[in-house]
Design brief:
Strand content: 5-15%
Largest sheet: 8 strands, parallel
CATH superfamily: Metal-dependent hydrolases
Radius of gyration: 23 Å
CATH topology: TIM Barrel
Strand order of the largest sheet: 1-2-3-4-5-6-7-8
Number of strands: 10
Mean pLDDT: 92
Structural class: alpha/beta
CATH class: Alpha Beta
Low-confidence stretches: 7-25
Oligomer: single chain
Helix content: 25-40%
Order of helices and strands: HEHEHEHEHHEHHEHEHHEHEEH
Length: 373
């Protein structure tokens, strides 16, 4: 081999080695990334179809409104719902029985009981009290008799709620079995928010997609012992769903598997009583339009529309992702998604199922007359 050939071979090997090492990026780059300041406007010129009104009327199954019991002007919310084409909103923050009763009474008195519904909440922290199970069963009966259409379990209840000995109360604690069974008997769904995005448990370094969010919201950073590993909390939730087949569970935020739709598809196949809602994960779906379309096509009867925090202008991005074929448009919170998104252009029948048909099947007592066939 002559010198020229040796030099070419050496150069090729060096280029490959550098490229491979950069692709691996191990160890993480411990540098000060000026990430916040890099946000250039796109020079891409493509068709745009922003929309402020959904193509079909929809039900938001994941919202939070703390003041419904005392709000003497629900007309403002009703007007915003009409502008969005939202026919029913589900308030997951029913809190205790007294507040829930006052909420449903206030809603009814103002004439919105067919548009604004409430889920019950229960207290894990008193689980060691002798009559906890009896009292909680009575509460669920009472709440349903006062208009509760389901039960919401907050993430804190599987992460930070502790018993009298200071031990974390897992979602699959044996004392909670009565709750899941009771909801099945009452015919109401359980919407469970378990854990947080998996990246919150990863090192806060340059390899973490949630780097900016964790910088801006450091309280969201988790550790294996604070309160438990991500895998443990998620497994506890799945254990509940597997063992309580007669109860319908709505897995909030796609169960934090929106970034791994193949795995979520496998879980849905395994647990036919599990459903998912799209609250706060639309940016994940919008960056993988082909995979998302495959998932929606296959699981179209198991997906519900949810939003989580209520800000009317943020719904526009959900409509654009679900309904249009737009390309390369931004999410509204850069610290959630620094990438651009693409519309799924879902077929009408799938849109109808996600927007309202699936919720009408899963949540009892909703007014189907508000929706087309």
């Amino acid at each position: 081999m002559n010198n020229i050939c040796r030099r070419l071979l050496l150069s090729t090997c060096l280029i490959f080695t550098v490229a491979f090492c950069w692709a691996q990026r191990t160890p993480p780059l411990e540098i000060n990334i000026d990430f916040e300041s890099y946000d250039p406007p796109s020079t891409l010129v493509v068709p745009e179809h922003p929309t402020t009104h959904s193509k079909y009327p929809f039900i938001d199954v994941h919202s939070h409104h703390w003041q419904w019991a005392n709000d003497d002007n629900l007309q403002k919310l009703a007007g915003e719902m009409e502008d969005l084409n939202m026919k029913i909103i589900v308030n997951l923050s029913g809190r205790n029985s007294e507040v829930l009763r006052n909420m449903t009474t206030n809603i009814s008195n103002q004439g919105y009981s067919n548009q604004m519904v409430v889920f019950s909440n229960i207290n894990f922290r008193t689980i060691d009290e002798v009559d906890w199970e009896e009292q909680t069963m009575k509460q669920l009966d009472y709440d349903v008799s006062n208009g509760a259409r389901g039960l919401k379990i907050y993430k804190s209840q599987g992460m930070y709620n502790e018993d009298s000995s200071g031990k974390r109360i897992p979602l699959n604690h044996k004392k909670l079995d009565a709750i899941w069974n009771k909801c099945g008997e009452l015919g109401i769904p359980v919407l469970i928010h378990a854990a947080d995005p998996r990246a919150f448990w990863a090192p806060h370094d340059s390899l973490n997609e949630r780097w900016l969010e964790l910088k801006l919201r450091p309280g969201r950073k988790r550790e294996a012992d604070d309160p438990a590993p991500w895998e443990t909390i998620i497994a506890e939730q799945h254990d509940v769903m597997r063992r309580h087949k007669n109860t319908k569970f709505i897995n909030a935020h796609f169960g934090w598997y929106a970034n791994d739709l193949k795995k979520l598809d496998e879980l849905l196949a395994e647990m036919p009583n599990m459903y998912v809602e799209i609250g706060a994960i639309i940016a994940e779906l919008g960056r993988q339009p082909r995979m998302s379309n495959w998932f929606f096509e296959k699981n179209q009867d198991r997906i519900l529309f949810g939003k989580d925090s209520y800000h009317p202008e943020e719904y526009y991005t959900y409509f654009r992702v679900l309904e249009t074929a737009d390309e390369y448009f931004p999410y509204y919170k850069r610290y959630h998604a620094f990438w651009k998104m693409y519309g799924l252009n879902l077929p009408d029948e799938i849109l109808k199922k996600v927007y309202y048909k699936n919720a009408l099947v899963i949540i009892p007592g909703l007014d189907a007359s508000l929706f087309p066939e």
